[in-house]
Design brief:
By secondary structure, the protein is an alpha+beta fold. Helix content is about 15%, strand content about 40%.
């Protein structure tokens, strides 16, 4: 697993005004939780944006290099616990980091990547991709970037389940094994409605005409 290094400084100032001031300087306010403490931090905005927008979420183990002042630094293994974005501009506003022990098993979410197009698609089938990530338990150093699953043999009317994911040493999948990752269904046939027969409307017309004739008063007969 590739080591991801992020540098951080201790942040003493807090509050909304301070946070806005940091963001104007391309710094991101953050908090590191875990191991019985919390520390307020400031991170390089572009560095974190690149990491998050590249698809690295809570499954990416980050080595946080913390500048504690007086030329002292310390390294902390962390995961991205949560982050906030401005809805309109998509700008990052804040990030929470979770410090973890490298010797304790944790539970994280890992994305599923489908490799090879299902055989049923080539025959006109339609693929429905349902489960796009799974929860796994492993040591922080063994968190996979992704889990690949081969769908090349999936025919029309068949599916792949979580139980079909190949096992990996040190990684336990805790998502329900019966969950369907993808399925290939037959294409829906278009049903064309039969044109209405013109004769279907005629009985009503005739009935209305007959009724009108029955209700019409009889003509007077001329005397002989």
């Amino acid at each position: 697993m590739e080591k991801v290094l992020v540098k951080a400084d201790i942040r003493s100032e807090t509050g909304k005004g301070s946070a806005r001031s940091l963001r104007r300087k391309n710094l991101l306010p953050a908090v590191m939780y875990g191991l019985g403490k919390s520390v307020t931090l400031k991170l390089d905005m572009k560095e974190i944006q690149k990491l998050i927008y590249a698809g690295a979420g809570e499954h990416a183990l980050i080595t946080l290099e913390l500048n504690e002042g007086n030329s002292r630094t310390s390294e902390h293994p962390v995961l991205i616990k949560e982050y906030q974005k401005e809805p309109l501009t998509d700008e990052l506003l804040h990030v929470d980091l979770l410090e973890v022990s490298l010797e304790k098993i944790i539970k994280v979410t890992v994305p599923i990547v489908i490799i090879k197009e299902p055989a049923g698609i080539k025959l006109g089938g339609i693929m429905q991709h349902r489960v796009r990530e799974v929860e796994v338990e492993c040591l922080p150093t063994q968190i996979p970037d992704k889990i690949e699953i081969d769908a090349g043999n999936v025919e029309i009317g068949h599916s792949l389940h979580v139980s079909d994911i190949p096992s990996q040493e040190g990684i336990k999948i805790v998502t329900d094994p019966s969950e369907v990752i993808l399925s290939v269904t037959a294409p829906k046939e278009e049903v064309t409605a039969a044109p209405a027969e013109a004769e279907a409307a005629e009985p009503e017309v005739l009935k209305a005409k007959g009724k009108a004739e029955e209700e019409a008063p009889p003509k007077e007969q001329k005397g002989k």
